[in-house]
Here is the input.
Amino acid sequence: MAILEIRNVSKFFGGLAANSDVSFEVNEGMIMGLIGPNGAGKTTLFNCITGYYPPSKGEVVFDGKRMNGLQPDKVCKLGMARTWQKVRPLAKMTLLDNVMVGALCRTNSLKVAREMAMEQIGVVRLEHKAGFLAGGLPIGERKKLEVARVLATRPKLLLLDEVMGGLNPAESEDIIKLILDIKAQGKITQMVIEHDMKAIMRISDRIVVLNSGEKLAEGEPQEIVNNPEVVAAYLGTE
Amino acid sequence: MKSFNNRLASIRGAGTVKIVGVIAVAAILFAFPRFVESPYALHMMILFFLSTLMGSSWNIIGGYTGQYSVGHAAYFGTGAYTTMILLTFKDIPPWYGVWAGVAAAVVVALVIGTICFRLRGPYFVLASIAVAEIIRVTALNLTDLTKGAEGILLTDIPPFMIGDTILTDFSSKVPYYYISLVLALLMILVTWLVQNSKLGYYFQAIREDQDAAHSLGINLTIWKNAALVISAVFTSLAGSFYAIFVKFIDPTTVLPLDLSVQIVLISIIGGIGTIFGPVVGALVLVPLSEMLRSNIIAQGLINSGLVSAESATGIFLKEHLAHAHVLIYGILVVIVILFMPEGVLGFFRTIVARKRKGAA
Here is the structure.
């Protein structure tokens, strides 16, 4: 069953079409990969889905509800959470406080929020850093903080915007395991933007390729790798 | 996990010490007028409580939520004018008028918040200044209601009665002392409650990163307005208190930009986003501005023998130093902001933390 439907979504900035006429569906429980060269409109599409921009045309349907025009906080309450390409830790708050802010989306009690937060901090294995200020954590741990923080909002759909960007191979491997663990639990559908091709091919059930704002291809990882148009978009043609 | 729980426990232990400390200080302050009768001393204490109240109110929206409103005179003036107008023209006693002032300030806060919170960073600061100026100019020109630049002078306050018993007739400074003390303590309690609830987490999340906060389910408009309303309620109480205490208000004393800046400085100098920062700020600023104004510094220099009273320098200092109090005040503020960016409280905390680290 499709948890997310993108129907003919376009987003214009003045005369520039950052997304034009993009359509696809994300089925419950799967990992959908979203790839494309720089400037293809991946993050813009995330912003349209999560309420940061209203789409210029088309509609986004999540869990049977039309999302157009809903603010990001409403989107989060409905069960769709996103991380940021450029990490956004709440720098002067501790790791625990950061994750608690996410948990407070579902509860008014600090005590309950603290328990929910510790559970998610356990999932990303950062218990030993819970009392540290978020601003002082290294990049790999800040990325994990973001994942723990969005998990604490109890999402049905998780949108991860380049969670492996800037990480070393060992840290990337940690994140890949984390994403696959979340999938194995079976409760959360994921959509992942990623530049690391090896990683995205490994984790995705399906992949959508964007190029210059348009959908270039969609299919299983193996089909995508062998698609001549995708290869041309990435490597250029003779 | 264990070390984390230990740390939590030690934080709670420190909390108990702090609570006992606050209660002890509060008890001393409540007993203070029994031992000190000097009206001047009481006056200084009242100014200290009033500054604490104003600084702590601003701290909620500026320190915790990170929205630097430089227009808090608007709420101060709204409270002061509402209470004063009701008392002088309608004979409504101030202990009822104050609540009308609070209600008016809440309305003003919601109007200002709904408009200005669409803006971020420096644009919000400018908008908050502009709205406060609009209110000042309005008060200046609505002469039927506010008597404009002439100001409103209060001749007498009805005695505060419950049933037939007169609690106080406001003839000395003592009742003002207790009212301002209770208000200041109440504000500290409110700050503590905010910090230890969902409000505090959401306010600080908004301060640290609005977009991240928004994506975590925080409705920015609602929560920013909530912070502003809490702040405005207590600033308005401060304004009402000031009006009754000084018994005269006009747009240049309760609505000027100076006042808005003053309110911000109490919090910034003490240390923003902390419960006791504004208390420390008031503790620094109130005596400082009084010393400069009353020429204690020039007198001290002469008495210490550093400068002879008859010399040209001595005469010059005696005549002009008091007039330059705003200038010196400004320079000191710049020095504090440059060398103690976390405020006086933050500065001492860093020193203590460093010493502890050295000891360990």
Summary: Residues 210 and 216 of chain A are 5 Å apart (CA to CA). The interface with chain B takes residues 50, 52, 71-74, 76-77, 81-82, 84, 88-93, 97, 100-102, 104-105, 108, 110, 113, 127-128, 130-131, 149-150, 153 of chain A (CB under 8 Å). Chain A has two domains: 1-79+156-238, 85-154. Chain A is about 35% helix and 25% strand.
